[in-house]
Inverse folding.
């Protein structure tokens, strides 16, 4: 665990207090109402033992098989009582709630030799790390609807260090498993659970719609490779709110496919809301990309607090990606101790193979960043478009990024156009102040 539990608890309380106001708290979580289940079963009814040693894979699979085939009206809640329940990977089913009581831990086995393999995602064409298939996520759902993962802040522990070591030692045969992944699913709620030590990405909804992730804590050591917090991927109507994330990679990263495979699949990520998220990472706080070949549009991120960051806000793509990044609004961000405050770049990320089209250039336009305050920021910002595909409509307003030293280094910019207003230190000459009242940024300032 990357921070003492007391720090996590204090952070969650601070988030809750910060969200209180005289009026009603603004939330997007109503897109998927929380479902109450009359029918309830316990994992112990199926022989599970929470001693941290007994392997309970058979119990989890039998309990979920029962939920799937009995089809109780209104669905079924699977109760995980206090204890440490060791298990291999398992699949969820529609119309169920996975409920972790206080003190309940679902812990992944570290016997990786027989971990199931599944096909690569069509928008990636191969595993994200290795050619071929990929290891199935620890908790997996495909083609589901009406699924809830919640409880009393119980823990889902991926025990990822064995996977991290394989990655470091270059002994991985296939791409590491995510902690939780939903594919082609809708009406998903994930709340009030602690996720820790994921082998790879933590929460990955891909080809999904109507997803709410709220009141979660996601933890992994800062040196754990690729342990992204929440990665909405080719998904729509996603709400991420009121959460604490401290991991080894981007806290929240919006994606939509990889080069020629993402272009061919053609499913964008859209209508993504990220609100009241606090966290720390050696990489990015709020990220778009770099896999954006299906397009990313209509993303709102606000009231974000970041500490000890690599990059506060990172919008990233590359030649060969194709797709688009447009109508992105990020506001009310506080960051403290960051190597770079803001980075919008067209030369980030690798390629799945040699078959990508270098002439497939991404379109980046309509990026609004406002009300951003940074302390101890080593370098304020970089905006680097592509020569044959300049970034347009980049709007910066009310941004103050203060350096750790008395004099902060300047911005770096190329192949970009847009406007800036009240930005300290002053950004690049390509961002003008003369047209903000009449230009493309007028509606945002």
């Amino acid at each position: 665990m990357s921070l003492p539990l007391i720090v996590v608890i204090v952070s969650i309380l601070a988030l809750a207090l910060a969200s209180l106001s005289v009026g009603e708290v603004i939330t997007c979580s109503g897109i998927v109402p929380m479902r109450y289940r009359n029918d309830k079963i316990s994992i112990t009814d199926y022989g599970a033992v929470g001693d941290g040693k007994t392997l309970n894979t058979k119990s989890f699979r039998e309990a979920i098989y029962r939920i799937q085939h009995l089809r109780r009206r209104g669905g079924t809640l699977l109760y995980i009582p206090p204890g440490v329940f060791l298990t291999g990977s398992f699949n969820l089913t529609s119309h169920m709630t996975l409920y972790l009581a206080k003190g309940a831990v679902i812990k992944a086995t570290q016997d990786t030799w027989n971990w199931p393999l599944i096909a690569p995602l069509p928008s990636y064409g191969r595993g994200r790390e290795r050619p071929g298939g990929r290891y199935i996520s620890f908790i997996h759902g495909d083609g589901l609807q009406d699924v809830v993962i919640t409880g009393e802040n119980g823990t889902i522990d991926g025990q990822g260090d064995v996977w991290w070591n394989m990655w470091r030692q270059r002994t991985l045969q296939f791409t590491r498993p995510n902690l939780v992944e939903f594919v082609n699913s809708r009406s998903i709620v994930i709340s009030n659970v602690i996720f820790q030590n994921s082998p790879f990405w933590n929460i990955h909804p891909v080809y999904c719609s109507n997803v709410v992730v709220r009141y979660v804590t996601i933890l992994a050591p800062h040196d754990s490779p690729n342990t992204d917090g929440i990665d909405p991927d080719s998904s729509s109507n996603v709400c991420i709110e009121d959460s604490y994330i401290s991991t080894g990679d981007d806290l929240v990263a919006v994606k939509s496919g990889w080069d020629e495979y993402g272009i061919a699949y053609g499913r964008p990520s859209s209508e993504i809301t990220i609100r009241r998220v606090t966290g720390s990472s050696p990489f990015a706080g709020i990220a778009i990309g770099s896999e954006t070949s299906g397009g990313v549009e209509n993303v709102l991120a606000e009231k974000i607090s970041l500490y000890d960051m690599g990059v506060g806000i990172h919008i990233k793509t590359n030649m060969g990606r194709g797709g688009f990044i447009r109508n992105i609004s990020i506001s009310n961000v506080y960051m403290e101790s960051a190597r770079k405050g803001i980075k919008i770049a067209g030369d980030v990320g690798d390629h799945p193979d040699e078959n990508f089209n270098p002439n497939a250039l991404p379109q980046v336009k309509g990026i609004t960043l406002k009300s951003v305050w940074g302390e101890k920021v080593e370098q304020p910002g970089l905006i680097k478009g592509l020569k044959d595909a300049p970034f347009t409509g980049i709007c910066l307003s009310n941004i103050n990024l203060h350096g750790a030293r008395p004099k902060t280094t300047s911005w770096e910019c190329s192949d970009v156009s847009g406007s800036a207003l009240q930005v300290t230190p002053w950004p690049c000459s390509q961002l003008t102040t003369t047209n903000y009242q009449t230009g493309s940024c007028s509606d945002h300032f």
